[in-house]
Amino acid sequence: MKIKGRLIWITFSFLAVASLIILAIGFGLAVTEVTGPSTPSPDSRNPSDTDETRGMEKDLLLGLGDSLTRGTGDTNGQGYFERVHQSLREKNRGISAVNLGIKGQTSEDLTKQIQQDRVQRLLKESRWITVTIGGNDLFRGSGSLEKIDLEKAENTRQAYEKNLQSILSDIREQNPDAPVFLFGLYNPFGHLEDSEKTSALVTEWNQTIRAVSQEYTKVVVVPIDDIFQLNPEKYLYSDHFHPNEKGYAFMSQRLMQAMQVDGEGSVNGG
């Protein structure tokens, strides 16, 4: 009996330790998902990517860009992109989606990603294209929050402008017809002291986005800065940088309005 009881105790202890290890690993992965830089492996897939092999026949929603397209900060894992995908599927079950957003991606990174054969093939197949890009350029390339370097910020903005022109030109080369929905930037630091400087930079960069978009047909800018302007803490994730569920819900509403989707899942304008 003593031996049997000891074996039971050892087994129980082993299972308890194993459970703690698994829990710790899971927590670490969750933290990395939110805060760490990300470069997806060639085999990584979003759940919505599974439609890629089914023959999309021009009913494809394609997402490009950074962590906002990826959905970082949404504990439900949807972000704006999957919310819009599901809304479209309610109107037309034949609509598929591929999310190519990468956490931490800059405009220079996107100019390289868009040259990949797989991405160019998907661009050709796309019916709608969404893009979020520029936030990492702006806040990495403008000095620190404590001391914004205006000269550095301007040099970064000029480089971003050229990259954005390259991105939109490459998209139009692969697909002249699909509307491109380009999200504007927002200021996640509007609740901090001296927020006037960061707000002024965001305004200037949004003007650049609008100016570049006008150089191309069917490129629609989706503004979101006002969503976060008055009450940023309500719509930001706990990292005070990415949107939370409410923030992404607003983004998806703005995008659906811009897409002007009718009951058949067709775009009326843009």
What descriptive keywords fit this protein?
SGNH hydrolase-type esterase domain-containing protein, Rossmann fold, transmembrane helix, SGNH_hydro_sf, 52% helix, five-stranded parallel β-sheet, SGNH_hydro
Write the layout of secondary structure elements.
Blueprint: H1 2-35, E1 60-65, H2 67-70, H3 79-91, E2 96-99, H4 107-113, H5 117-125, E3 126-132, H6 135-140, H7 150-174, E4 180-183, H8 195-213, E5 219-222, H9 225-229, H10 232-235, H11 245-259
Helix pairs in contact: 3-11, 4-7, 7-8
Helix fraction bin: 40-55%
Query: Mean pLDDT across all residues, rounded?
Result: 81
Low-confidence sequence ranges:
7-48, 50-56
Sheet with most strands: strand arrangement: 2-1-3-4-5
Work out the radius of gyration.
Answer: 21 Å
Sheet/helix structural class: alpha/beta
* CATH class wording of the largest domain: Alpha Beta
At CATH level 3, the topology of the largest domain is: Rossmann fold
- Structural domain count: 2
Reading the helices and strands in chain order gives: HEHHEHHEHHEHEHHH
Shape: globular
